[in-house]
Design goal:
Helix content is 74%, strand content 0%.
Length: 450
């Protein structure tokens, strides 16, 4: 059987054959978006006492967990359905997806941040109530803005997504400066800046998609259909973030809020690698999903190799630079708390690099329609992190990055055999364009066991 045709790329050259300019836009987009989050975390790390920093870290893990729910439950399935349209016609999803996604964004934000509030210790309620209010609002706005940016990439206008993220970063920095100079209470500042940045940049993104009304509606979103696919994506995506949240709760309760503060400071040191991984994934993920859909192992391996080489080429020198407090490391002065516990920063960088290197098979399995199998495997890997976090009684803050390393190793050992099995299965029929994953009619016949 001959190899199925690759989907035709959009008019501006995005898609599986995306070139260097599109990859650069993806890295700039994800980089600026991540730097906006990094900047508010850096502010907290620099100005908060260890106990309040630990509380912020717990609220931040709840923030990430809350934003995972609408992303995986509704927005990701909607974006997969959007593959049935071509180019900028995919932007017509917005009228449906933003309305459907508002409530699924709000409810988990409220639930997760209230659990974080209940799990804090060693700080007063007056200090954490502002964190609670602003984190709920920021966790509601963030997944909506992320969805807008991903659709811009899907529509082949990646540089618009990059402009949105640049706007987000600039606004976040301005709000941080204004609130700090105005003498606002510390708890209002980090998530408050992130909230305003998401609202401003999201509004700008909507303004840049006005042309979508010129295109016919190709895809009709059905909520029940989205939820059928989304429940499996959510299970797979929720488990890793849930493990991080549970790990934060355990470290806070077993070792104290200050220990969690040191974990957060070390995580900030590893954040540039997370920014890099997110930027590379912005353009690698669609190519990997296409490879999985077409059962094109050669294409998947090529994209994975490029992703891993860039991560290692930049990650290993970064480890040498930022892993310890020495004269050439500027982070020693910016984030001194990260280096108060010997070796914690280096261990955090190694954990971030290891976790990033295990990401590509996930996208290939998603493209193949193996979301159920992926959910089971990632749930198993994520459980390792929560188990290792129980060592916080003896290991203290080291339990944080050790848990990430344990999860990364388990993820690699589980996903690699699944990837090999998926590519060994019978390929889908010839000549098809993008499929609507999750629908009965749109699944490749070779989806295999899930």
């Amino acid at each position: 059987m001959s190899r199925p045709r690759d989907p035709a790329p959009p008019a501006d050259g995005d898609g599986p054959r995306a070139g260097a300019p599109v990859r650069a836009a993806g890295i700039l987009d994800a980089g600026c978006a991540s730097l906006a989050t990094f900047s508010v975390g850096l502010y907290a790390t620099h100005y908060f006492a260890p106990e309040l920093l630990g509380a912020y870290a717990l609220f931040f893990t709840a923030f990430v967990l809350a934003t995972t729910v609408p992303t995986q439950l509704l927005f990701m399935p909607a974006e997969l359905r959007g593959l049935a349209a071509a180019g900028r016609a995919r932007l017509r999803l917005l009228e449906q997806s933003l309305v459907l996604g508002l409530l699924p964004a709000l409810l988990p934000a409220v639930a997760c941040e209230l659990v974080a509030l209940a799990g804090t210790r060693d700080v007063t309620r007056g200090e954490v109530l502002p964190l609670t209010v602003t984190s709920i609002l920021a966790a509601t706005a963030s997944p909506l803005q992320d969805h807008l940016r991903r659709l811009l990439h899907m529509a082949g206008v990646s540089w618009r997504a990059a402009i949105v993220s640049v706007t987000q970063l600039v606004v976040a920095l301005l709000v941080l400066a204004v609130l700090h100079l105005a003498g606002a209470a510390p708890g209002w500042i980090p998530f408050g800046a992130l909230l305003v940045a998401n609202l401003a940049s999201g509004s700008f993104a909507l303004a840049m998609t006005r042309e979508r009304r010129r295109h016919a509606v190709v895809v009709r979103l059905d909520l029940r259909d989205l939820l059928r696919t989304g429940r499996w994506l959510l299970s797979g995506g929720l488990t890793p973030q849930g493990a991080v949240f549970v790990s934060g709760l355990l470290i806070t309760q077993l070792a104290g809020a200050a220990a969690m503060g040191f974990v957060e400071a070390a995580r900030q040191v590893s954040a540039p690698l997370q920014v890099l991984a997110t930027g590379l994934s912005a353009t690698a993920a669609p190519q990997l999903m296409d490879a999985g859909r077409a059962r094109d192992a050669r294409a998947g391996s090529r994209v994975t190799r490029h992703y891993a080489l860039v991560m290692l080429a930049l990650g290993l020198p970064y480890l040498a630079l930022a892993g310890a407090d020495w004269p050439l490391n500027p982070l020693g002065a910016i984030i001194p708390a990260a280096y108060q516990v010997g070796g914690l920063a280096a261990l955090s960088v190694v954990g971030a690099l290891a976790f990033a290197l295990t990401a590509p098979p996930r996208y290939e399995l998603l493209g193949a329609g193996w979301e159920r199998r992926l959910m089971v495997l990632e749930s198993s890997a994520s459980g390792c992190q929560a188990v290792v976090s129980l060592s916080a009684v003896a290991a203290g803050p080291y339990a944080g990055p050790l848990g990430v390393l344990a999860q990364s190793l388990a993820r690699w050992l589980l996903l690699q055999p699944a990837r090999a099995h998926m590519y060994a299965r019978r390929r889908p029929p010839r000549g098809g364009g993008p499929v609507s994953l999750g629908s009965r009619a749109g699944r490749p016949p070779a989806a295999g066991p899930r």
